[in-house]
Automatic annotation (TrEMBL):
It comes from Leeia aquatica. The keyword NADP applies. It catalyses: 5,6-dihydrouridine(20a) in tRNA + NAD(+) = uridine(20a) in tRNA + NADH + H(+); 5,6-dihydrouridine(20) in tRNA + NADP(+) = uridine(20) in tRNA + NADPH + H(+); 5,6-dihydrouridine(20a) in tRNA + NADP(+) = uridine(20a) in tRNA + NADPH + H(+); 5,6-dihydrouridine(20) in tRNA + NAD(+) = uridine(20) in tRNA + NADH + H(+). Its EC number is 1.3.1.91. InterPro entries: Aldolase_TIM, DUS-like_FMN-bd, DUS_fam, DusA, tRNA_hU_synthase_CS. Catalyzes the synthesis of 5,6-dihydrouridine (D), a modified base found in the D-loop of most tRNAs, via the reduction of the C5-C6 double bond in target uridines. Specifically modifies U20 and U20a in tRNAs. The record marks N93, K180, R183, R296, R299 as: Interacts with tRNA. FMN binds at P13, M14, L15, Q66, K135, H168, N208, G209, G210, G230, R231. It is an enzyme of class 1 (oxidoreductase). Pfam families: Dus. This is tRNA-dihydrouridine(20/20a) synthase. The gene is dusA. HAMAP family: DusA_subfam. Gene3D superfamilies: 1.20.120.1460, Aldolase class I. The keyword Oxidoreductase applies.
Amino acid sequence: MTTLPPRRLAIAPMLDWTDRFYRYFFRQISRHTWLYTEMVNTGAILHGDRERFLRFDPLEQPVALQLGGSDPADLARCARLAEQWGYDEVNLNVGCPSERVQSGSFGACLMAEPALVAECLQAMQDQVSIPVTVKHRIGINEVEHYDYLRHFVETVARHSQTTVFIVHARNAILKGLSPKENREIPPLKYPYVYQLKAAFPELEILINGGITTLAQAEAHLQHVDGVMIGREAYHNPYALVQADARLYGDNHPVPTRTEVLQAFLPFVEQELQAGVPLKFMARHILGLFQGCFGARVWRRMLSDASRLKANDPQLLLEALAQVVDDSIASAS
C-alpha cells in the first residue's frame, strides 16, 4: 500500500474551479500537496452522472472527495463509492455559507448541530477504511467566541472517530453576505485555530483562510499540522512550486512554468481526443504566467472564445511564445 504524504499543504475545494482538469494541472507543480474536489452533494452522486462527479486520474493522488449533505445514510453510500473509486480521503463540508446549500440543510449551517455532524461522519467511517475528515468554520453568524468552536470540535471528536479537522478561520454569516463576501468580510482569527490545536494535540488540525504564500504556510505550521490554500493556488499556482522542497523535504528539480505547461499538454491532447472542449482545460492555466512579461497576452489568447472553439492545442504553444518565462528567478 502506498504511503501518503502528510497534509502539510492542501488545495482547498473550490466550486467550479478544483475539477479534475485543474487538479491534473496542479499536480505538475507539486507532487505531495493534497488536492480536494469541488464540493459534490450526495444527491448528485446517488442520482446523477456518477462518472462525471467521481472520475479522476491516478496522477492526481493524493486526492480527497468533498461531500455536501446531512443525511447519514446517503453520506455513507457516497463515502463507500469514494473508496471504491480510489479516493484517498472523503471530506464533509460544514463550511459553505451559500443560501443554496443551506436550503439543502448542509454546509456551514450544520455547525449548529455538532451531534448530527458526528453522526454523519461516523456513518461514513463505518463504511470505509480511508480517512473521513471535516472542513468547517470557527462559528456562524454573530457567535464569535472561541468556546463555540471548541464545543463543536470536542463534540464531533467525542462522538465519531474523526481526527482531522480543517478549519476556515472565519465565521460564516448565513444571511446577508454572499459566498464571496463570506470569504472576505468576517475577520480572520488564526489564534482560535492555534488554541484549538493546543487544546486537542491528538487531533490533526489544518488551517484555512487568507493564506497566500509558502512563507505564511511555514509560519502557521509552527502552530498547526497543515495549511490549506484556496484562491491564490488557482490564480497564481506557480507561487507554490517550492512546496515540495520547503514543506515536504523533497528537493526534486523544480519545473519551470514552460515545463509545467509541456507536462500538461499530453493530458490536454488526450482529453481533446475524448471530446472534452479545450476551454474546459485552458481556463485553469490562465494564472500560470502570473507576474511574467506577456502574462496579459497569455490570458487574452487563452480566453478567446473563437480560438478555443477550434479545440486546437496549438493555441497553448502560440500563447506560450508570447510570454517571457522568468521561472528560475521566481522559484528561488
